[in-house]
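re: the backbone from monday

yeah here it is again, tokenized this time
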């Protein structure tokens, strides 16, 4: 998840691209796991680190 957080800071990458890069084949599962770890969805996280 730390790598996913780092990649999401790069505004050029979509959440789907990040999901694939960190080895989650299922976008929904990635979002669920990310939310458990960070307390927000990947999109919310990406928007919060502008």
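seq for it, each position gets an aa:
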């Amino acid at each position: 998840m730390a790598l996913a957080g780092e990649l999401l800071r790069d505004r050029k990458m979509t959440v789907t691209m990040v999901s694939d890069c960190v080895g989650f084949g299922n976008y929904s599962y990635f979002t669920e796991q990310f939310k458990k770890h960070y307390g927000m969805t990947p999109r919310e996280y990406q928007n919060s680190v502008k």
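The chain is about 70% helix and 0% strand. The first helix runs from residue 2 to 9.
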